[in-house]
Amino acid sequence: MRFYKQENARDELTFDDVFLFQQLSWIDSRTQIDIKPKSPLSTTLPIISSNMNAVTGKRMAEKLARLWWIWVLPQDMELDRMLNIINYVHNADLRLDTPLTVNENNNIRDAIGIINKRSYQTVIMVDVLNIPISIFKEQDLIDKDEYTKLKDLVKSRKLITWNENISDEEAFNIMEDNGISSLPIVNSDWELIWILSKNDTVRNDIYSPSLNKNWQLDVAVALSVNGYKNYIDELINAWVNTIFLDTAHWYTQKMLEAIKEVRDSYNDIIIVAWNIMSGEWARDLIKAWANWVKVWIWPGAMCTTRMMTGVWRPQFSAVHESAVAARENGWFAIADWWIRYPRDLALSLAAWATHAMLWTILSGTYESPGDIKTDNDWDLYKENYWMASGKAVSGRTNKLSKFEQAKRERYKEWISKSKIYNIKPLWDIVDKFRTGLESSISYSWAENIEHFHDKAIIWVQTQAWFAEWTPHGRLKK
Question: What confidence tens digit (pLDDT) does each residue in 199-247 have?
């Protein structure tokens, strides 16, 4: 990467301050672009889900691993819950999704309560032997008394099922011909085991799952530098190969000692350490034998640390300096959080990061933890909250005495949570970020991410320029 005007290299810049310059290209199509990162992480897309309580849980982990990403479980989880999720994802199918089920004695209210847990928005009614009887979409359930038994709504149309050996194209054609959007998958005893949606058949043909050495869907876990010793042995035994050591202020002796201790005990695992904002910090972490550094110094709107403390750095400059230092020392950098649009991902990779981490945009998906709620206007939303918010602090300290909890609450930040409207399927975000990145790389006349690091040309713009090319028009809440 180079700045078009070299004097701008000394400026402190945010993502909104910069843009990529178009270059003459001989590439016929953006589909020729290779966007797989050259790194030890199993992900085949350069994107990671944030280790936030409102972002990554069981559903998010399972779905992302099928779509080339890697996901990071939050450090606030109890060990038993972490191990349960890891085991669940390791045993999930590499291509087929987990079905949402109800029984004959459930009512419409029961079905409505779970139907938005997955983006295929379908529930399957099964009998006592787990054999599918009927399948329901939301339109089958609305405008009816919510206490109506589901067995009274069984459709006259024959339920179509298939076995797990069906190809994606064959499944797509069956659903297309029969006007359905999901296909229950059964075993030889006709028991329901998986579900395949029409949307997933298309993406299975495009994306490949992120796998560990055992050919299972891969996992990563964030651990606190204060509590990692209570977790790490069990996690390694559960085939977790990537550990994120998490603390707001990494530049402490405790963080350096934690990295060295983990590395001495487990030489083969990948260690990601955070948070940093300079090349000096990146070099020190890598000297302590971290493989990756994560760059994030409070650029997000919900995190008020920079306003409380005055400590922060514009994210584009922080990523560029840290990533260059990491690569010069043989390892890698992850750009974290202020990734709102595909352009921010492209700019992060242009600045030599190998991956970017997404937070808020993923919290507003069907697959994120938590339930979909309604506001006073009956608009649907999901709740997003920051790890220093009152909600997160309360959950982290609920086993302490009331007196100790009261003392810890002094450190919660002012902005506690937000509402994310316009709930999206996860695959929609994956598609947008992938296709946007492919276009960005092709505009720079690069063929892959490594080539993009070298070819990208960065210009600096005024805020008026930035506002001029953003989408205009009135937006509904």
Answer: 999 999 888 888 888 999 998 999 988 889 889 999 999 999 999 998 8
Catalytic residue status for 340: no
* Average confidence score pLDDT of the chain: 87
Which pLDDT tens digit goes with each residue over 9-54? 999 999 999 999 999 887 777 778 889 888 777 788 898 988 888 8
Structural domains of the chain, with CATH: 2-93+209-366+424-469 (3.20.20.70), 101-204 (3.10.580.10)
What is the structure's pLDDT at 19?
94
β-pair partners for 373 = 381
Q: How many CB atoms lie within 10 A of CB 371?
A: 10
- Kindly name the residue from 183, 303, 319, 429 that is annotated as catalytic: 303
Query: How many other CB atoms are there within 10 angstroms of residue 4's CB atom?
Result: 10
Instruction: Look up residue 444 and give its two tokens.
Output: 């720079």
Entry pTM: 0.88
Token pair of 177 as six digits: 């011909």
**Residue range 175-191, pLDDT digits in tens:** 999 999 999 999 999 99
Could you give the CA distance from residue 40 to residue 44 in angstroms, rounded to a whole number?
10
Residue 156 has pLDDT above 60, yes or no: no
Contact residues for 268 (Cβ-Cβ < 8 A; gap 6+): 241
Residue (of 326, 307, 330, 315) closest to 277 by Cα position: 315
* pLDDT in the model for residue 217: 92
What spatial distance separates the first Cα and last Cα of the chain, rounded to whole Å?
A: 38
Q: How does 224-248 read in b/e, with b if 16+ C-beta sit within 10 Å?
A: ebeebeebbeebbeeebbbbbbbbe
Give dist(CA 138, CA 123) in Å, integer: 9
Single-letter code of the amino acid located at 201 = T
Q: Are 51 and 74 in contact (CB under 8 A)?
A: yes
In angstroms, the CA 295 to CA 356 distance is: 9
Burial class (CB in 10 A: 0-12, 13-18, 19+), 403: exposed
- Which residues are within 8 A (CB) of 112 and not within 5 positions of it... i.e. 6 or more apart? 138, 141, 146
Joined together, the tokens standing for residue 416 give 């506690």
Burial of 145 (0-12, 13-18, 19+ CB in 10 A): exposed
Structure tokens at 474: 């009135």
Residue type, 68: W
